[in-house]
């Protein structure tokens, strides 16, 4: 994708993430959580990390192919809502899927809980 700015909330993407020494990088999966208005205006997107090691922990949820309306996961994984970061769209290597609305809403709920945001 590199350079393509069509990224939407709920997209599963592969990102190029730099190590802290900024000399090496690694491709990592993530879910776009920033809303589509933000994604269309700014050169960045806000994402949460996807990890293959599944452990019981707060502010996380398991994701499987049953949670996707498009795409494919190699293995059932964990989304850690507290592993949130902003990246330039140019670092999005490719899109690998799209979450079903139910799973995206679950992640939004976890983020609301993490930041103590009340939706009245």
Q: Could you please describe the fold and organization of this structure?
A:
By secondary structure, the protein is an alpha+beta fold. The protein has a single domain, classed as SH3 type barrels, CATH 2.30.30. Helices cover 17% and strands 43% of the residues. It contains two helices and seven strands, in the order ββαβββββα. It has a seven-stranded antiparallel β-sheet with strand order 4-6-3-2-1-7-5, covered by helices on one side. A hairpin with a 6-residue loop joins strand 1 and strand 2. The longest helix is centred in the C-terminal third of the chain and has 14 residues. The protein is globular, with a radius of gyration of 14 Å. The N and C termini lie far apart (38 Å).
* Number of DSSP E strands: 7
Q: What proportion of the residues form beta strands (DSSP E)?
A: 35-45%
Quote the CATH topology.
SH3 type barrels
Return Rg in Å.
14 Å
Mean pLDDT: 91
Largest sheet: 7 strands, antiparallel
Query: Low-confidence spans: pLDDT under 50, at least 5 residues?
Result: none
Instruction: Record the strand order, biggest sheet.
Output: 4-6-3-2-1-7-5
Backbone structural class? alpha+beta
Order of secondary-structure elements? EEHEEEEEH
The end-to-end distance, rounded to whole angstroms, is 38 Å
Number of domains: 1
Top CATH class: Mainly Beta
C-alpha geometry: globular
State the helical fraction.
10-25%
Instruction: Please tell me the CATH architecture by its name.
Output: Roll
Total count of helical runs of at least 4 residues: 2
Kindly list the characteristics that best describe this protein.
single chain, 120 residues, alpha+beta, SH3 type barrels, seven-stranded antiparallel beta sheet, 2 helices, 17% helix
């Amino acid at each position: 994708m590199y350079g393509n700015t069509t990224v939407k909330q709920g997209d599963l993407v592969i990102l190029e993430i730099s190590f802290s020494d900024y000399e090496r990088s690694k491709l990592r999966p993530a879910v776009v959580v920033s809303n589509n208005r933000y994604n269309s205006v700014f050169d960045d997107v806000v994402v949460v990390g996807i990890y293959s090691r599944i452990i019981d922990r707060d502010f996380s949820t398991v994701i499987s192919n049953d949670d996707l309306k498009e795409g494919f996961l190699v293995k059932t994984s964990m989304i850690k809502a507290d592993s949130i970061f902003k990246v330039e769209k140019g670092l999005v290597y490719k899109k690998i899927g799209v979450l079903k609305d139910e799973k995206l809403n679950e992640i939004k709920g976890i983020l609301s809980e993490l930041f103590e945001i009340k939706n009245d």
